[in-house]
Amino acid sequence: MKRKLAGLCAAAALILASVTACGDDDSSSGDRKVTFGYIGDYSGSAALAVAAKQDLWSKQGLKPDLKVFTNGPLQVQALGTKNLDFGYLGPGALWLPATGKAKIVSVNMLGQADRVIARPGSGIAKPADLKGKKIAVPAGTSGDMILNLALRETGLKPSDVSVVPMDPSTVVTAFGSGSVDAAAIWYPLIDNIKKRVPDLVEVTRTEDFYPRLTFPNVFVTQPELAAKDPELVRKVTAVLRAANDWIVANPTESEKITAAFLKLPAAQLAGSTKYVKLLPSAELTKLTQDGTVNGWFDNLADIFVQMDKMPKRDAAKDYYLGDLYAGAGGVPKQ
């Protein structure tokens, strides 16, 4: 009978592809298993790297199953099919929670890494010069967002340029080989590009739009998970808060830990914190409670509507779980 029950439980887990099935707990530790997506760069993995190094998961009675992705939209797809419980999004993918496809559980860092870059000799020195040029862009990412903002600033439309959708690693190759005139991409990938094209031109930077716009990257969960299992979401959020505060206190060391987590040379991520703004959880809590964080999301959502990413937007209060974030400062292991 026990064998039959175990077989039924395993089958259910495969069908649901979710940690909410029979196999919630790790048999050796009793910790709750949680699947979490990330992107293999500093912003996309630092909190998870630190959480693992500092053993923050077990303190909340959790056992992470971490899965790497190349972009945020793919993680949202996995959330929708319940192949992930949580994931990471850069600011360029925030239109997805704004259309009800995910809930934001925590702000991670404020992004300052996105650029529109141009090859030397391309004739591109400012956004207006992008007209008619061939531009490599990872679709649906913060690169897509920064390009659209640059075009809007100078009165150009996406149809005024030749956009070539590529995944991020292909953008690096295409720009380096000269098969495109420009690219909308981010650091540290731009550092890789500079090895081949050291005199590239930075046409537009994230900072050009600050403080009119703020570009948070975030952690998200399935749209209904917080309602179904608020305790789980609160515990995961507590892990993320603790990891964030450790990073704020130890930024240089966090770069080294993240490099080790990603199996990269430490030098490759050295200086990554130059391209993000780190905020302690206490400050993020205050900014959440006074409505500032909702304003960040609402302002970006308005831009996404103007970019035709979506016909209308939800209000940030409907997809940012701010009350849960503010209350997740310390959840004891049960």
Structural summary, described in words:
With 334 residues, this protein is an alpha/beta fold. It has two domains: 18-110 and 214-326, D-Maltodextrin-Binding Protein, domain 2; 114-209, 3-Layer(aba) Sandwich (D-Maltodextrin-Binding Protein, domain 2), CATH 3.40.190.10. It is built from 14 helices and eleven strands. The chain has helices at residues 2-16, 42-53, 56-59, 72-80, 142-153, 168-177, 189-194, 225-228, 230-249, 251-261, 266-269, 281-289, 292-306, 322-326, and strands spanning 32-39, 62-69, 86-89, 103-111, 114-118, 134-137, 162-165, 182-186, 201-205, 216-221, 276-277. A five-stranded mixed sheet has the order 7-6-8-5-9, sandwiched between helices. α5 links the parallel β6 and β7 (162-165). The longest helix has 20 residues, at 230-249. It is globular. The two termini are 30 Å apart.
Strand order of the biggest β-sheet: 7-6-8-5-9
Report the CATH superfamily of the largest domain. Periplasmic binding protein-like II
- Rg is 20 Å
Q: How many strands in all? A: 11
What's the overall average pLDDT, rounded?
Answer: 89
The backbone outline, from C-alpha atoms, is globular
SS element count, helices: 14
Query: In total, how many domains does the architecture comprise?
Result: 2
Question: What does this entry show, briefly?
Answer:
The chain has 14 helices and eleven strands.
Chain-wise SSE layout:
Blueprint: H1 2-16, E1 32-39, H2 42-53, H3 56-59, E2 62-69, H4 72-80, E3 86-89, E4 103-111, E5 114-118, E6 134-137, H5 142-153, E7 162-165, H6 168-177, E8 182-186, H7 189-194, E9 201-205, E10 216-221, H8 225-228, H9 230-249, H10 251-261, H11 266-269, E11 276-277, H12 281-289, H13 292-306, H14 322-326
Parallel strand pairs: 1-2, 6-7, 6-8
Antiparallel strand pairs: 3-10, 4-10, 4-11, 5-8, 5-9
Helix pairs in contact: 2-9, 2-10, 9-10
